[in-house]
Amino acid sequence: MAKNTTIEDQLREALMRDQRIPDPGAIAVSADLGQVTLRGTVGSFGVRRAAVKDARDVEGVDEVDDQLQVRLLDEDRREDAFIRGAALQSLVWDAEVPAELIDVKVDEGWVTLKGDVDYQFQSDAAFDDVARLYGVVGITNEIRVITP
């Protein structure tokens, strides 16, 4: 098993190399027996997802405790109705997603996806589509996979 300091150093290095993360110093990293905790404030949901993915990709990491907060800059903020419309349109444009079966609610930038789909990849694709949108600070995925 990798030492805590080795995991922390490798993750900090990965965050520094990741072009999706403009300010890696804003992310505090700690490791304990294969569990990594990320703390701090980032400027978008995309940056948060990138940091978590980087952590999962480090050898010796078994679990990631994501405590990162998203705080949007004023120019990145969007009205909830705008985010909902963009999310619904994004779902319609994705051939993998049965958009007519998914409802989108938005509250202060936090998106909740609800509905029933036949396959996990459909739920995952819907989450990924919405996660790319400007103004999203977080997502709750309540899409249920109902085996056909």
Identify low-pLDDT runs.
none
Largest sheet: 3 strands, mixed
Shape: globular
Fraction in helix: 25-40%
Order of helices and strands: HEEHEHEEHE
Radius of gyration: 17 Å
The share of residues in extended strands comes to 25-35%
SS elements, strand count: 6
Tell me the distance between the termini: 42 Å
Structural features, described:
By secondary structure, the chain is α/β, with parallel strands linked by helices. The protein has 4 helices and 6 strands. Strand 4 and strand 5 form a beta hairpin. The longest helix is centred in the first third of the chain and has 14 residues. It is globular.
SSE topology sketch:
Blueprint: H1 4-17, E1 27-32, E2 35-42, H2 45-57, E3 63-70, H3 80-93, E4 102-107, E5 110-117, H4 120-131, E6 138-145
Parallel strand pairs: 2-3, 5-6
Antiparallel strand pairs: 1-2, 4-5
Short description:
The chain has helices spanning 4-17, 45-57, 80-93, 120-131, and strands at 27-32, 35-42, 63-70, 102-107, 110-117, 138-145. The protein has 148 residues and is an alpha/beta fold.
List the main descriptive attributes of the protein structure presented here:
148 residues, single chain, alpha/beta, 3-stranded mixed beta sheet
